[in-house]
Each structure stands twice: as structure tokens, then as C-alpha cells.
């Protein structure tokens, strides 16, 4: 669950408060030579930034910048200067600039300046040690069709070497437009997870969401039920074209909501794994999530109370008023309550009366309207296949205690006795070892997916498919 209302309202400083940033135009023959990252601290929130340096064949340097927590990638950098002692990134399209002094190999200490304010920012090479460098198994790009939507979806199928048949797992991504690696904040969780599974005898199919990467279709108008149809199409493709021993689903976040839907619809699903899956409605989730995330910032008690009251009113408007124009009018009226808050609280929440309407419109998307009212409990009650449920102890986006208890209760009401539920110590929503679970930590943690969590899932799959 990465496309979350809370993110839109909390981080309003660096890019979302500006006009839409210019997209970098990097020639195909330019080579990426450096990928440097660091973290800004703005009003108590951590904001990872990634600075990309490219080189043309003629030796000239080009650049782009990413702000993963804000979903902003490929921001144009008008000028990159690197000398023996310093580095300068001029990002004039958003009125920003980074200047740093070299302190070690590709390591710099400096400041990010924007809007007349300066913030310390130290950068160093972006490290993702878990990304595989070799693939001692079969890797195949595949395309399969969702006949209901009349679209083709593209993905990658990885199969262990040796004699099969093997169990196969379809990975279902979380919310927001995701490619087959579920790439976000410099991490590729599904690439790392599929590599671990396949090295241990489990085939994996992962695919680009509709409208993303090489997959056809439109993402903007799709709901969780549409994504469930896509996952069902993946199951049908595997069943018709390969001889796998068993077929399972492993869904992350919203994918953990989708997996039970598909399991109830398809007789070909043999097991499911819910990774930070939800046991509450979207409305209940966002209420908990927003408050937990804000508590990681320096918002005042008055600001937090205003946020709680206003957010609840906003979500109820979206649930009750079906007409978009009427709902938006009501949302704008309610949001005026933020106008009396301090400037710091407004910046933390992301409130700017001139631009806030754009954020509010995201609440009226088909996906959000469906998500707010979709209750996973009656769906889980119908699941009869084995279920593994895992959630990080420090997950702020899908709080573990509230969600795990509801998932457990729903499975038990439905008479499903073949289930395991694990709350994993010190892990966040992405299953990284973390300090607080704050969203701002995701991009600065080197670990992409905790090894012990992957081992737990691997052993469970192999145990359930051993026959």
C-alpha cells in the first residue's frame, strides 16, 4: 500500500508544493555513471533524494533527480558540475540546488537550497546489496492476456533448474502503479523476493501492473477488483501453458487484499501468502495510518487533533457523496480547518490552499472510492486454501496488531484451520529491519527484503507443496 493518502498530506515541501517539475531528457546513448543518495529532514519528516549522473559520449555530464517518497522520478537537472573537490546539482525547474564538498570516494557533505531555505544533505553511492548479480535459473519474459479486460500483461517467469514439476508463486504488488519488480525508493522488492524463491526451488511469475511498463491497459481508472482479474489471468496462463505442481499467490499490501479475492474465484489457487495484507476497510486503515505516520513528525498536538478530525470527515464525504463535483466542494470546505494551523503544521500536513485541491481529487479516484469501503473480512471468511500471513511489527501503513487480529478472526470464522500468522520483529511495511517504521526510512535502508522473512515464506511454501 504505497499510494496512500497520508503521504500526499504529510510531505508537502520539496516538490509537491511547487509546480510540476520538468522531466529530464536523457539521450539513449548516455551512460549512468553515478547514483548518489541522501536524506533531507524537513519538519521532522525524512525525505530521501537520489541524484543521478549520466555521461554523454562526448564526455559532458547530464543529471536527473528522484524524490521516491513523493513519487517524483526523473526531475530535470539543468546543470551538473563535478570537480576534484565538490559537486553541484542545479535543479532550476523547481528552484532547487545542491552543493557539496567531497569527503571521500563519491561522498559529499553539503546543503540543499530551495525557496530561500537551506537544509543539510550528505550524499553517497546508493547501495542495494541484495539485488542479484547472476541468475542460476531460467529467466523468461512472458506475455499473457486478461480476456475480460482485453489487455495483455507482460512479466517475467523464473524457473529453477533441474527436474520439476516445481511449485509456482504469482506475486501481486501493492497499490500505486508498480512494475514487475515492485520498484520504489530505489528498491526492487519483487526482484529480490523472486530471486530468493527461485534459488530455493520455487518458480515465480511477476508482472507489470496494467498500464505500467510493457503491460497494456489503463491504471488510472482501475480498482482492486480489476487488479484481481489481472492476477486471475496470470493463474489461468500458468495452468494452461506449464506443468507446475501447485500454484500460489503472494500479495504485498493491497496485493494481500487481492490474493483472497482471486483464491475464492479460482479453483487453481492452492495457497496464498498475505504480506502486510489488510484485515480492515480502507477507511479504517487510513485513519490508523495517518495518525501513526504523523506522530513520527514534529506536528503539534493541536495539528494532530485537527488532522484526525478533518481526515475522518473527508473520508466520510468520499464514502457518502458519489458525485465528484459535489464531493470535491465539500472536501474543500472541510479542508479549510487546516488554515488556522501554524505554518509548520500546514507544511507537515502538506496543506497549501492554492494547490490542495489537486491532492483532494485523488480521493475521488475509482480506486480510492473502492478501497475505502472494500471489507476484506467476508472475503477472508470464504478462503479454504492454506494461508500464511506475515506483517512487520513496525509497519505504520498496515498496522499489524489491528490487521492481524482481524485476519485471524475472519479465517477462524470461516473454519480455515490451515493458517499461520506471524508478526515479525523490527520490520516495516517493506519488510526491512528499521528503527521506527517511518516512510522516510524506506529509501535510506540498504536492505530491500529481510532474509529471515524470505526464509520463513520459502520454508512454508515448500512444506505446503511437498506432496
Helix percentage range: 25-40%
Shape: globular
Number of helices: 13
The description of the largest β-sheet is: 9 strands, antiparallel
CATH fold assignment of the largest domain? Rossmann fold
In N-to-C order, the SSE pattern is: HEEEEEEEEEEEEHEHEHEHHHHHHHEHEH
Q: What is the straight-line distance between the termini? A: 34 Å
CATH top level label of the largest domain: Alpha Beta
Low-confidence stretches: 1-19
Please compute the radius of gyration using only Cα atoms. Answer: 23 Å
Written account of the structure:
With 467 residues, the chain is α/β, with parallel strands linked by helices. It folds into three domains: 20-125; 138-280 and 375-464, 3-Layer(aba) Sandwich (Rossmann fold); 282-370, no CATH class. The protein is 31% helix and 26% strand. The chain has 13 helices and 17 strands. The chain has helices at residues 5-10, 189-199, 224-241, 254-265, 282-294, 301-320, 324-335, 343-349, 356-361, 366-373, 376-381, 400-413, 451-464, and strands at residues 31-42, 45-55, 61-67, 72-77, 79-82, 86-91, 96-104, 107-114, 117-125, 138-146, 151-159, 168-172, 203-207, 247-252, 271-275, 387-392, 419-424. The protein has a nine-stranded antiparallel sheet with strand order 4-3-2-1-9-8-7-6-5, with no helix packed on it. Mean pLDDT is 91; it is low at 1-19.
